[in-house]
Amino acid sequence: MKRKEKDGQLSRKEQREDRSSVSILAILWYLRYKMDTTIRNLDEQAYRLLRSRAVLEGKTVGELLHEAIRAYLSSRLQPNRTGSLRDLHPEPYPEGNEGLSREIDAIVYG
Prior knowledge:
It contains 4 helices and no strands. It is an all-alpha fold.
């Protein structure tokens, strides 16, 4: 698409062409990444709760399902790690307990 340099602005025809190319890209994106899916054997009460939550949040059921699926998949990508002692950080003793370690040693070791 050729652009005419007139004070850095596009002519009306060029603006229409820009909009039409954007809308074509949007349609292609939709066809590539969106799909209609039927979910069978879904609990009716769960669906009703989901639908009411969607209405309260101003979203569609599909948007909420998309969010839920993405959250589930991202949580599963992280390996189940057990804790490590390296993850622990020391906590300071409250004031007045500076000699607590020596007192404990005296009690334990005499």
